[in-house]
Amino acid sequence: NTTEHRNIFCIRIGEGDIPIVFAASFHGLEYLTAPALISFAHNFDKMTQYHNKVQIYFVPMVNPDGVEIALHGINPANFYHKKIIEHVGITDFSNIWQANASGVDINHNFNADWKSVCKAPSPTRYGGEFPESEPETRAVVSLLQQIEPELFIAFHSQGKEIYYDFNGMESELARTNATEIAKLAGYKAVRAEGTASFGGAKDWYIQKFHKEAYTVELGFGKNPLPLSQLEGMVKDTNTICIGLIDKLIQKCSK
């Protein structure tokens, strides 16, 4: 459960020998990544030709508390929200809230070159008191340790980019696959820079298991992206996921 006692749901589809994990909505304002991933899960459920080859674990919303705040704002009567107001000093969080209900940016809370960009709870980029301090982060870490997927993708928005690297630990195959699939989807394969280059789920997974992991930035513009972009995000999610799944099956069959 999250700080505000919401469930973080996980759906498994497929009975194959190749495990995969897809996760979305790490950030509050990036809530459209959840329906984009759920739509792909619905499509994949019908793709029975894959079900005896791979098993995919879908986590559509890693940060439901943050999404709730991003969508509906702060509630001054809420104990956790009171603490946020005390730390941050503002009560209007519309169009700025990326963190969880404790003011921690989940995608800076993983133990991979962890550092806290901000010194206190904030709408964004506060990495927490220490790595994996947050229940959402621990839930993702626990799942990945249990499954040890051959492929992990963390879905974010925006930028139409695919990040594939972490401190030179990524494989040459990851760079090649990211480049090919990005071209197929009309995206760019890029190396992460600045605050995007540490503390993320993809970073932690590459460091821990040295397997393929990517951050996919769906859509283009400023978060929160308009609902009008969802159709395109759904299409891109399908293109990227199937492209990388096909490459993984090909690699594992050799």
Structure description:
This protein is an alpha/beta fold and about 250 residues long. Helices cover about 35% and strands about 15% of the residues. The chain has seven helices and seven strands. The protein has helices at about 35-45, 65-70, 80-90, 135-145, 170-185, 200-210, 230-250, and strands at about 10-15, 20-25, 55-60, 150-155, 160-165, 190, 210-220. Strands 1-3-2-4-7-5-6 form a seven-stranded mixed beta sheet, sandwiched between helices. Helix 5 links the parallel strand 5 (about 160-165) and strand 6. Helix 1 (about 35-45) crosses helix 7 and helix 5 (about 170-185) packs antiparallel against helix 7. About 50% of the residues are buried.
Shape estimate? globular
Question: Could you tell me the mean pLDDT?
Answer: 93
What is the CA-atom radius of gyration, in angstroms?
17 Å
Binned, the helix content reads 25-40%
Instruction: List how many beta strands DSSP finds.
Output: 7
Strand content: 5-15%
Order of helices and strands: EEHEHHHEEHEHEH
Q: Largest sheet, if any?
A: 7 strands, mixed
Distance between the termini: 40 Å
Strand order of the largest sheet: 1-3-2-4-7-5-6
User: Poorly predicted ranges (pLDDT <50, ≥5 residues)?
Assistant: none
Structure annotation, total helices: 7
Structural class: alpha/beta
Quick recap:
This protein has helices spanning 33-46, 64-72, 79-88, 135-147, 172-185, 201-209, 230-252, and strands at 11-13, 18-24, 54-59, 151-157, 161-163, 188-190, 212-218. It has 254 residues and is α/β, with parallel strands linked by helices.
